[in-house]
Amino acid sequence: MGQIVQLSRDVRIGAFASLVLLAACSAPNEPGEINDPYESLNRVVHASNKATDRVFFRPVSQVYGNAVPKPVRQSLSNASANLSGPRNVANDFLQGNVEDAGHNLVRFLLNTTLGVFGLFDPASGSFGIEERDTGFADTLAVWGTREGAYLELPLFGPSTERDAVGLVVDLIANPLGTVFDEGPDIAAATSFPSVLNSRFELADTVDGILYDSADSYAQLRLFYLESRRFALSGQTSAENAFDPYENLYEEVYEGLYDEF
User: How far apart are alpha carbons 50 and 53 in whole angstroms?
Assistant: First the structure.
């Protein structure tokens, strides 16, 4: 048993080291530059993601949204968001942000207990403790890791080399997995209703970007890169950029690809 645990740790450490090295690749020449050396492949993935949305996520989300009452949908989305609490706290500590770590820890404890395992959100409603979401991609940025090239990932959507590394590390090193063997399965099962709910609630806006744009790939790429750079500008000065599309991006893609 001990050997299995050690092997698991060694695999995680090896994957972590390899991914961090990957995150330093393909850095843009200028902070505000769009660095997309994989555009041909990215466009293929983008077309596949749009097709998947067209034949699955859009119709299924409509059935889900119309069949399931909004309070139930919101509760399931709350539970999914609550499971990201341990990840937020861990990354806050890695970033040296003790205040946010304490804030997110209190929020997680309140919603897990008073909120019945996160189905409700008394932390926000009764205590004014809003979520301060973060992840290992943000941690890498704080540590000075470069953005790398733009990527579009199957199902997960827009990303960069650094953000893709952060996503994989968040999945591998999910703190829930150290507490419950079924932690990753629980996170995946609860995130799916959240994805469907977001797709239903934001159907008009998402459809407008994915299907009404002259070049949905280029538009999505611009929204993602500028939004991420703006979001990180308060944490690191390496890639400061003002994002005129920030609010639109947050409305469109919040929960759409995250933790799928």
Answer: 5
